[in-house]
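The protein record passed on below.

***
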Amino acid sequence: MEAAKKFHQYERYLRTLCNVLGFDVVSKGWKKTYRTYVTIFLCGQYFLWMVWSIIIASDTFELLKSLSFIGFFFQCSSKMYYTITNAPHYSNNFAGLQESIYTAHMDGTEEQKTVIERVITVVLLATKATTVLFTSSLFIFSFYPAYMYFVMDVKVTIFPLYIPGISIYSAYGYGITNSLHMLIAVYGLLGALTSDTAFMLFVLHFISYGELFRIECEQFTRDLSDYGEQWEQHTPEYESFCRDGMRALYRYHQTVIEYLTSLQECYHSICVFQVASCSFSVMFNLFLALTVRFWVEKGCRRQFKTYCFDFRLTGTQRTAS
């Protein structure tokens, strides 16, 4: 089935990102590795740099600039915490949709295959668009300091954060600071891609579950009408057919409910943190852009708006489904 090939293509991409970060929670029996602790350590370092930058801020606007990326910290830390806490749910959901949607419908009807392929195609397109958008944001963050340094001879760091014991006014200090900032930015990019593409996968596949359940109900209705013409009602054969059909529908319906309940368990708190931090960060960075012409506001604004649009769109689709 073509849809199964597309799903495995997406799985390879997602698992690669998860392995780099040390958060391969979609696999059974996942355990923390040194890569997990490296990711957590870098997030902690980012927070320490932010605190240090606040302490040494020379004026109010410098202090506000140091807080301009606080939304990223809350997003990253909340996602890591809830991902570790709900790791079994992620692996069960991933294995469940792979089994219930792709493996179980390898020999399904054309209508079933069309529904499955349509959803996984949307997932792949959304993943590619998100990858391009986030990668372009990383280039924006890195291009401006390079331009200012080589063309304007002004030292500007990627993030408005200072590292204790390192001065950006020396050539070595400036290079080390921007190198560490770039490392944080790359890890942040990978983390955002992993989290958001996995979110889109799980939420959009709820549409597959709903559509496949609808097809099963319609098929049972047609079969019930056909068999009703062959058998008398209240006969053992007719009752056995109805009982088996209703049992299959009930089990599938329970699978859908369990999947949705597990999704809410995984993403409810993350969505609250995401929407709140995005809304605050957009407002905060627009304020900095209007008052001190803070250069990162365009990249921040685009990414935060994309976050909000992503969650609004997938939430609407889930509600409609």
Summary: The chain has a mean pLDDT of 83. The chain has one domain: 1-315.
